[in-house]
């Protein structure tokens, strides 16, 4: 694992380009910074500055090399690289509240945007008029949409919201794609159809993630729980309430292994092998070594100069992140066998973790 710091500002969201040599990061402001890796250092090469409100979501399409951003200014932009400069195109999302999250579909021909307007905007490009249009999914949503994830079939869309619900919708747009085949979540898929709805999530649903096959759906809620719905097994839901602080982000790293992280400042591994078989595996952080009792003369005088004391600062946490983790992203390997993933947090740091599968679980 490796840790990188991008300043003192909290990092609210991040996204990688296709070959993982560049990363788009928002330091909790209205600007997205794009960094390029040079050796062991990250150098800032671009700034995306069109938004007037705080950036709430960013996603980078690997094949088309387009970036989509959304913000509290109720706008979304699709950015295209032309002659070495990122050019924005405004999207007609038609919302009257802040945008909260955004996600490209697997085929990159559309993206979904959640907002505080109690709806999801599914946006696609209309070639005839050369602009990005949106269609709204509203059915059943009673509060802010906090998280989104696409099914591998490019049609189904999972959403977690502040009304304590987790849902799966159909985002099929007949103008741009062929009619989808049946899935374990349902066979009739007109646009906006609710194919799954779980009402007892226990808290705000901060993050959702489909498994690599799309057969299961995991989500994390503000009551410190993680849950999995199993499509082929009658959409049966399995809950696991942890003893940790609330988790904020969740991803699948294999078909059965899940990684989640949040206010405990470190990632945790969970395993799901079937209904009622969701278990905690292990903490995926390496505790920092304490240097208590071995302060050097240089450290002694540094503390005296900076803090007017000779005592060591023991307030530092033992985790790599020193504040809450806001988002997890896959860095290396397919979703069926992730080798590396990244996390960003409120401490302004980004950590790249190496994942090694472990099948031992404990409830």
UniProtKB/TrEMBL annotation:
WD repeat spans: 48-84
Compartments, record wording: Cytoplasm, Cytoskeleton; Nucleus
Keyword Nucleus annotated: yes
Tree of life domain: Eukaryota
Keywords assigned by UniProt, alphabetized: Actin-binding, Cytoplasm, Cytoskeleton, Nucleus, Repeat, WD repeat
Gene Ontology biological-process entries: Arp2/3 complex-mediated actin nucleation
GO molecular function: actin filament binding
Family annotation (InterPro entries): ARPC1, WD40/YVTN_repeat-like_dom_sf, WD40_repeat_dom_sf, WD40_rpt
GO cellular component, one term: nucleus
PANTHER family hit by this protein: ACTIN-RELATED PROTEIN 2/3 COMPLEX SUBUNIT 1, ACTIN-RELATED PROTEIN 2_3 COMPLEX SUBUNIT
Role of this protein: Functions as component of the Arp2/3 complex which is involved in regulation of actin polymerization and together with an activating nucleation-promoting factor (NPF) mediates the formation of branched actin networks.
Family of the protein in this entry: Belongs to the WD repeat ARPC1 family.
Official protein name in the record: Actin-related protein 2/3 complex subunit
Organism for this UniProt entry: Denticeps clupeoides
